[in-house]
Amino acid sequence: MVRPPGSRRSESVKRGAAPGSKKRPLADQTVDDPEVWWRAQGLVRLVGVDEVGRGPLAGPVVAAAVILPPQVELDGLTDSKRLSPDRRELFDHQIRRQALAYAIQAVAVFEIDRQGIMAASLQAMAQAVQALPGEPEMVLVDGPWRLPLDYPQQSVVRGDARCLSIAAASVLAKVYRDRQMIVYHRRYPQYNFARHKGYGTAEHREAIRRWGPCALHRRTFRGVREWLREDDDL
Amino acid sequence: MTFSRRLLGRAGEDLATATLKRQGYKILERNYTTPLGEIDLIAQHQGTLVFVEIKTRQTQTFGTAQEAVNSRKQARLYRLAEYYLKQRRLSSRPMRFDVVAISIQGPDTRVEIIPHAFGG
């Protein structure tokens, strides 16, 4: 049986390539890219999905799902974490213009505290896929996780650096979430969300200590919950 | 009735195993030992490999899953899971981490399964 890359058989290929190094040689990336493989099998409605905002102390977790056309011009697109904010904005624009379809979904702080961040981020990703028009033929999920969906799916570890459509999803989610945090900054300027986007920087932790948590803070997170007061009902 | 810590842990593991089986988990390993430490349970559920951490307590107070397993422990479990996947050559299989929280207080015992308790 022929297997897509990333499945058991191709692991030997992966293992053979520059063990320990994060960057694999270019030649190997196509072999190692499930997206390229599935496209070669004739699949078109191939969805990349990724999430952003699992770590921050405040704000929603945001996921995006993207279907790219077979011929797409996104040279230099990779994992959103490795792109500068300016380049992310540029790619965000280009992805929105070229994508066959995309959807962005946020899961609110309330849900993060209720179900835990892992379940909430899976929910965000599943919602993003479901918000797309039509049925996906294959869903490529960033990370070793499985989404609560009935569509065919493949987990792709470090997918945001391996598959173009997952990288595209990571950019859409990142840019959307950052913009959202800038909007929240106007409502709660004392934390400076516009700068750190809710992540636990020294500045942010100091602001929580000084002002206490606000309605956007994840109350179950360490770094926030220590500062809740008994009568806090945010 | 009070258990010693070891007996308590053991009773909790038995109870967790039985409960997970009833919920359709197929138990693959119990107390899987690696050079890096131990995984309480490894199971298969709905096509996903599940690494289970069992928390047994003799109190009523239940924290959240994040509280039950601190971030250092989460990171350790993730490394243990990676080790297991490598050993079994299962690297591409989707996985998740569940916590089974058990409170034993005399005859009043509660078992709570928390799927997707945390990620890597």
Structure description:
The complex is a heterodimer of chains A (234) and B (120). Chain A has 234 residues and is α/β, with parallel strands linked by helices. Chain A has a domain at 31-176: Nucleotidyltransferase, domain 5 (2-Layer Sandwich). Helix content of chain A is 41%, strand content 13%. Chain A is built from ten helices and five strands, in the order αααββαβααββαααα. Chain A has helices spanning 11-16, 26-31, 34-40, 85-98, 109-115, 117-130, 159-162, 164-187, 193-196, 202-211, and strands spanning 46-52, 61-67, 101-107, 138-142, 153-156. Chain A has a five-stranded mixed sheet, with helices on both faces. In chain A, β1 and β2 form a beta hairpin. In chain A, α4 crosses α8 (164-187) and α5 (109-115) packs across α6. Chain A is elongated, with a radius of gyration of 19 Å. Chain A starts with 10 loop residues before the first helix and ends in a 23-residue tail after the last helix. Chain B has 120 residues and is α+β, with helices and mostly antiparallel strands. Chain B has a single domain (5-118), classed as Trna Endonuclease, Chain: A, domain 1 (3-Layer(aba) Sandwich), CATH 3.40.1350.10. Helices cover 32% and strands 42% of the residues of chain B. A five-stranded mixed sheet of chain B has the order 1-2-3-4-5, with helices on both faces. In chain B, β4 (95-105) and β5 form a beta hairpin. The longest helix of chain B is centred in the first third of the chain and has 18 residues, at 5-22. At the A-B interface, α6 of A face α2, β4 and β5 of B.
List keywords for this structure.
heterodimer; A: 234 residues; alpha/beta; Nucleotidyltransferase, domain 5; five-stranded mixed β-sheet; 10 helices; B: alpha+beta; 3 helices; 42% strand
